[in-house]
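Write out a record, focusing on structure:
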Amino acid sequence: MMKRVLSLAIMLFLGVVPVAVAQTVLQPDTVLSDALTDDDLSFTPDGQYHWPYDCYVVDAPAGEAWEVVVTTDYYVDIILKSGLECSGNDGIGSQPIDEKELNIMTFISGGGRYYLSVKRHWAVEYRSDKRQDYKRQDYQIVLRRAAKAPKRLKMVAPGIVPRISPTSPGAASIAAAGDPTAVESDQIFTDCAICPEMVVIPSGTFVMGSMALEEARGKDEGPRHTVTFASPFAMGRTEVTFDQWNACVAAGGCKTRPGDQGWGQGDRPVVDVSWLDAMAYAQWLSQSTGQRYFLPTESEWEYAARAGTDTPWNTGDAIVTDDANMLGEFGRTAPVAGFPPNAFSLHDMHGNVAEWVQDCHDMGYFGAPLTGAAAWKPDCPLRVQRGGSWADEPAQLRSAARKGGAAGARSPKVGFRVARAL
């Protein structure tokens, strides 16, 4: 009898980027059978593999314990994905399970949707003794509520999967469906006592990206392109603060309790939060207020940061420490709104903390949306951060400057602000 082997792992081997696949809904207690074959195996021009994988979508109530049971004749990888799309890498922690007839991964749902990827295991290509046997890898998969497993099975430590929207959540400037004459530019409002203050940003057009001769220009800041916002939208007057974040934690909408580095909390910007954390906060804010909150898209952020300017910073051709928290001047974050606002009444668009936006980071704006929408990919390794932080040089604070970060990464230099549809 062939050995049944399942490797549970987080994988990114030599820059492998799996091909996108269709998503299958995995219903509880329904056994599905499938196979991974060489048919979808492809190569990049530099000789890297694109491993085939299958994607399963699961919606599970919060707080419930679940088991994913996989039976397979050969090597595959199972990746439990918390995010906004399926992929063959960047999963939640798990551990290898070898030579068992049944292989079980347990987890506790945080509510909402998550993804399971079954991926062709790269190591089989180097098993020369049975190379032909690995041309087809059959397996069965079933989802069920967790029960006590036999002692001979190794169990993966449970992980909390945050409740995250399953698809691109849209954009505040596009989701707007109200009467544009009912709001005024620069109007400041709030939807609740602990909600972020929001500023109305006017509809309009701007040229996104930096000029070719702009000093310190990055290769990913072009080509320049015109973006049009057909509707006004609202942007957070400041970055989300610790007080605002802690309200989400207290209500159960946010799972992460970030530290403050000893700097204090209150009205300082929340730090050490990931892109996934920021998305969860926006979703909680939407649910608790009945309004439509989002992370800003990259074009919304730059439009709001520039506030009608076309210079490297919204302060003009130069920026100094009286304009923004930068250069490690204070060695930490500063309370929000401590520096002068831009022409749209927004504070700290330069410095203090770098800010997550929705978009997938790419090497440039080739094919970028022209309507205010976010740039999305089915398997996005890096999300965009904007604005630079308290520790950065002025070049990193420019209105066009971009930086990529993994969706699950956290840093004391990174926070976020929210946008809202009107």
